[in-house]
Design a protein that fits this description.
The structure is a single chain. The protein is of the alpha+beta class and about 180 residues long. It has a single domain, classed as Roll (SH3 type barrels), CATH 2.30.30.220. It is built from five helices and eight strands, in the order αβαββββββαααβ. The strands form two sheets. Strands 2-1-6-7-8 form a five-stranded mixed β-sheet, with no helix packed on it. Strands 3-4-5 form a three-stranded antiparallel β-sheet. Strand 3 and strand 4 form a beta hairpin. The longest helix is centred in the first third of the chain and has 23 residues. The chain is globular and about 65 Å long. The chain starts with 9 loop residues before the first helix and ends in an 8-residue tail after the last strand. The C terminus is likely disordered.
């Protein structure tokens, strides 16, 4: 009788659980019809991932990744087990986006000083020594207070690029801290 060997992929289990935090937070927003108080969400995702749906002009402006903000001006948020759909305004035109949770690379709620970083499935297969752990985007420099997705589009069109850095005072959870280094 041969003995069955089981390997636990804890890093993937933790990744799935943390994506569940994002999904649960969005479900609260969906159920309440908006964000409570001063909360606002930054969601960064890979635009090249399968299942990401966004207009071609936005994909051209954001060929690799994109950060959206859910704050005051978003409509018809729908949260599914595997993705979110939302309508946002870009250059005063409402556009519908679909973002699979597997495409999300970062999530933050600056009001709560909370953030998560994710490895996408493509990134999870990379050699861990090659992963650049720069602490993630500086959420406040990406989107200043009061800015909208329209402002983000104008900044992208003008060539302004945010400088990635640690979010000041935020509790960012990067899964690299839990991964076994070889």
């Amino acid at each position: 009788m041969s003995e069955k060997v089981t390997t636990f992929q804890y890093d993937r289990m933790v990744e799935a659980a943390l994506r569940g935090v994002l999904r649960d937070a969005l479900r609260v927003v969906e159920a309440q019809g908006g964000l409570p108080g001063e909360h606002h969400f930054y969601i960064t995702f890979e635009t090249t991932r399968p299942g990401v749906v966004l207009p071609d002009r936005l994909r051209a402006q954001h060929p690799q990744d994109m950060t959206i903000v859910l704050q005051n001006q978003f409509w018809d948020l729908k949260v599914f087990d595997d993705a979110l759909e939302v309508t946002l305004s870009f250059n005063r035109k409402r556009e519908r986006l679909r973002v699979p949770f597997a495409a999300v690379t970062a999530f933050a709620d600056p009001h709560a000083s909370f953030g998560l970083q994710f490895q996408t499935e493509m990134g999870a297969d990379a050699d861990l020594d090659e992963i650049d752990d720069d602490g993630g985007p500086d959420w406040e420099s990406l989107m200043g207070e009061g800015e909208t997705n329209d402002d983000r589009s104008r900044a992208a069109a003008s060539g302004e690029a945010p400088d990635p850095a640690d979010p000041e005072g935020a509790n960012v959870i990067a899964l690299d801290a839990f991964r076994k280094k070889q």
